[in-house]
Amino acid sequence: MSRIDEVRAQMMQAMKEHKKERKDALSALLTALKNKAIDKREDLTAEEENAVVLKEIKALKETLELTPANRTDIVEECKFRISVLEEFAPEMMGEEEIKTAVKEVLDELGVTQPSVQDKGKIMKALMPKVKGKADGKLVSEVLAGMLAE
User: Fold this and answer.
1) How many CB atoms within 10 Å of residue 81?
2) From CA 149, how far away is CA 135, in angstroms rounded?
3) How far apart are CA 131 and CA 103, in angstroms?
């Protein structure tokens, strides 16, 4: 079953249960998935579906950051939508898994004493391996921490 079918089924269930906020969040995700499929003009792969879900979550997190603290209605709505979309997001890598991936890349590149100057080269080799599995910001922070050691 494709992600579009899953989201559609969940949306129908939310409609039957009269959960308007959940239905709205799922509807927005369904629209984003369908638009991506229309742009591509064929069915989406699992990686592309994951990328759409992560993009929607990222957009909501950015909205959350930019929202003034006194607008609790927007803050609550964004948090709820993020919690709904995370049900469809892929499992993200933790810090330990990222460190393991960094060590593998260092071995591949033959870098024994990584320095800050090597960060760009390391990130260039690392990001394709963790794309869609780890947050780029977290990967950068973990790598910077390892370089500082």
Assistant:
1) 23
2) 22
3) 16
Residues 61, 125, 133, 54: is their CA dihedral positive or negative? positive
Indicate if the pLDDT at residue 114 is higher than 80.
no
Q: Which residues contact residue 25 at a Cβ distance below 8 angstroms, ignoring those fewer than 6 apart? A: 80, 81, 84, 85
Residue 20's Cβ-side half-sphere holds a number of Cα atoms within 13 Å equal to: 1
Residue 126 and residue 103: Cα distance in Å, rounded? 10
Q: What is the pLDDT of residue 33?
A: 93
Confidence band, pLDDT 50/70/90 cuts, at residue 120: confident
Answer yes or no: is pLDDT of 112 > 80: no
The average confidence (pLDDT) of the chain is: 88
Burial of 25 (0-12, 13-18, 19+ CB in 10 A): buried
CA–CA dist 65, 60 (Å, integer): 9
Query: If you search the block for the tokens 């308007």, which residue do you land on?
Result: 20
pTM of the model: 0.73
Q: Is the Cβ–Cβ distance between 35 and 52 less than 8 Å?
A: no
Residues in the chain: 149
Tokens representing residue 23 in the block: 């239905």
